Amino acid sequence: MKTTPPIIQIALDFPTIEEAIAVGGMGIKAGVDWLEVGTPLIVSQGVATIGKLKRAYPDFPVLADYKTMDSGGKNVMLTQQQGGQVMTVCGNAPDETILAAVAASKQTGVWVVVDLIGVKNVGARARQCEQWGVNMIYLHYGADQRRADATRDSTQWIDEVMGSVSSATWPSLMTTWRLAGTT
Questions:
Q1: What is the tens place of the pLDDT at every residue in 156-183?
Q2: Distance (Å, whole) CA 116 – CA 32
Q3: Is the full-model pTM beyond 0.85?
Q4: Which of 19, 28, 138, 153 could in theory staple to 14 by disulfide, Cβ–Cβ 3.0 to 4.6 A?
Q5: Are 17 and 53 in contact (CB under 8 A)?
């Protein structure tokens, strides 16, 4: 699994696994590194989509974008059972949820990414999550935020987060952008 930047990830935010597999193949041809089972796909089709995408492209890491708010450890285990290597937890989730995900990550090897979507103090939460041992931090300006103010994006928090975490974490810092018109 490629873990050094830049990591190019394609968000497969489709309502069906068939669409996700087709676009995932296009992404691979274009040079992406990771395939993301997007939140809309997991919500509409369930966690089995992780396994289906992994079986379609066994040589590519699959990220489950749950944006977990509860049952952090359980979702790490579900990700592993389906063959996924990475999963997301919301930065606004209870501390116990993130800690449970990190503990399960140590057992399974599944990476835990904390998505800072909607977090008010991104620097402080990023620092706390780094101390707990998360594998990666996402800076995420959400679709609803973008619809309300399209002049901003997730780069607005880079300096704050980089000033809050150790330089060893910088290579794990990821920023999420979406193409116009996508979720």
A1: 898 998 889 886 666 555 555 544 444 4
A2: 23
A3: yes
A4: 19
A5: yes
